[in-house]
């Protein structure tokens, strides 16, 4: 079965136009994402005992900094506050309650670090939390958590939140 030259030209033209349309779409998305990079980043939600902490819990979760690679540019935002100056409002939780970190786009690695008290700057890594699930401490008090999530080809994001174990 032979394909006529006219049909071959139409197929090639269609393929070229499809590639041009894909390139224009990627350019527009890149332009919109770099104008407001915060809206293009994955979203973190935290589940407490299987229930999502409502986004209305003002001041509970703080995205401190990130480095994110788009197609042609890299956007960076360094933490704007020192760790002991973070505007965190602790969430009241029970001892040994389960917390799960849920990202809108699954990271390649997660590190969960914890400090005792809001003024403490000494964070210790929770070794059993690399899958994003961990339990709150058994001892009552205020604990500050630092989350370092990394996406292998895109970048990383750093979060903080605080818990008040009753």
What can you tell me about this protein's structure?
With about 170 residues, the chain is α+β, with helices and mostly antiparallel strands. The radius of gyration is 22 Å and the shape is elongated. It has helices at about 5-35, 35-40, and strands at about 45-50, 50, 60-70, 75, 90-95, 100-105, 110-115, 125, 135, 140-150, 155-165. It is built from two helices and eleven strands, in the order H-H-E-E-E-E-E-E-E-E-E-E-E.
Q: What is the rounded distance between the termini?
A: 78 Å
Shape: elongated
- Average pLDDT reading: 85
* Residue fraction in strands: 35-45%
Low-confidence stretches: none
Please give the count of helices: 2
In short, what is this structure?
This protein has 166 residues and is α+β, with helices and mostly antiparallel strands. The protein has helices at residues 5-35, 37-40; strands at 44-48, 51-52, 61-69, 74-77, 91-93, 98-103, 109-116, 124-125, 133-135, 141-151, 155-165.
